[in-house]
Amino acid sequence: MSLVEVTGLTHSFGDKKIFNNTEIKLFRGDKMGLTGRNGVGKSTLINILTGIVIPDEGYIKWNPKVTYGYLDQQAKIDSDITVKEYLKGAFDYLFKTEERLNDVNNRIAKCKDKNELKKLLEISGECQNMLEANNFYAVNSEIEKVAAGLGITAFGLDTPVGRLSGGQRAKVMLAKLLLQNPDVLLLDEPTNFLDREHIEWLAKFLISFKGSFIIVSHDSGFLSRVVNCISDIEFYTISRYNGTYENFMRQKEQKAENYLRNYNYQQKEIAKLQDYINRNIARASTTAMAQSRRKKLEKMEKLEKPVTAVKPSFTFQYKTISRKPLLKVRSLEVGYTEPLLPKITLTLRAGQKLAVTGFNGIGKSTFLKTICGIIPALSGSFRYEPDVVIGYYEQENVWEDPEKTAFSEIKEEYPTMRDREVRASLARCGLRPEQVMQKLKTLSGGEQAKVKLCKIMLKPCNLLILDEPTNHVETVALMSRL
């Protein structure tokens, strides 16, 4: 029996079709990767499985005995509790069982009625067995093990949740989800906020995980290590492939070739029928045969035109600048209420390419936001040469008006551009014609990232400040242009 089953799934966002009468099943032991190009509906499917999104049509059935956990990075957390207190929340049911055990044991100590005492002893035994079966007395060590594996101990289990950066917060939420140990994990791009060593730890965890999972990831190397089946979204349909990620890629390539062959054959057949209809429908002697072919054409189940993934091409315009230092940073302290890093001093000259590295949550994004003037420095200073023009890429997909289309976002930023030039620029970044006119909020994370990169590409600048630009886009396509 399946753990979760979705049948007859049909869903759209406005005019954008996502799924059309498709299905997906997850069985016990499945470690499933969910793949597909940007915007096909991977995150939407996860949200449908969790009930966050209600599909237009379709039936979602979870096995009533199955528990699932979803990494919802938008969930609200009490900002006043510590990281350790938040992680302990994964074991709330055990702590409540311990409270009940203590209460029952106190009542046993005072009980003088034999019948009542017998009942209390039975309850006490049940509580004790439950705690031991779930390794309750090793909760603290389990929390520390997962926290260390995901790099949480680096910023401290005693840190208030309210002081965490976005990446740190996501790590803590992932840690709690893993500690809860549900039957099914639903993970949407869990490696985006992890460093290499923590991705390695997560891979080992998932390989040894006794339950099942569905994971969305753009990291093919990560998927090849942890999955034993793939569900691929294409042409509004979900197709299942058993076996490794590499096996899936081979099968998909063969399937694509077969589909293209069938599509081309059908197009020739349609053209042939239409030509006959056009030439014979008006003749009295042949109109019956023409009408017969028209009915055949109308009944034909037409194949969708194959969509070729648009390969993005990123080219940044350079604005000439003198060879003086572009940026001088002197004893700069960054943070919010307290410094996150030691005082920073550096000089950046024209032509230099600087990488800002460090474990997740240490303050890399805070440093970049500070030197971009988005948040104030705690102390120290930074100074740009007067002719420096910055192209800043923010890690988060945040828009002033998410109701705007990708087209209008670029057009308002560059009003002198012709409409066809705007469309061409977005196309070079990998957006298809129909995506250009979609609202920003309906685009996938990768598609939104490409809109942001397009804005930077159109702006002649001499200093790029990029915060995790490869999280959602093709790494090779972008890095080859930097």
TrEMBL record:
Pfam families: ABC_tran, ABC_tran_Xtn
Superkingdom of origin: Bacteria
Keywords recorded for this protein, A-Z: ATP-binding, Hydrolase, Nucleotide-binding
Gene behind the chain: yfmM
Gene3D superfamilies documented for this protein: P-loop containing nucleotide triphosphate hydrolases
Record lineage: Bacteria, Bacillati, Bacillota, Clostridia, Eubacteriales
SUPFAM superfamilies the record matches: P-loop containing nucleoside triphosphate hydrolases (SSF52540)
Signal peptide range in chain numbering: none
UniProt-recorded name of the protein: Putative ABC transporter ATP-binding protein YfmM
Domain ABC transporter: 4-260
EC number from the UniProt entry: 3.6.3.-
Annotated GO MF terms: ATP binding; ATP hydrolysis activity
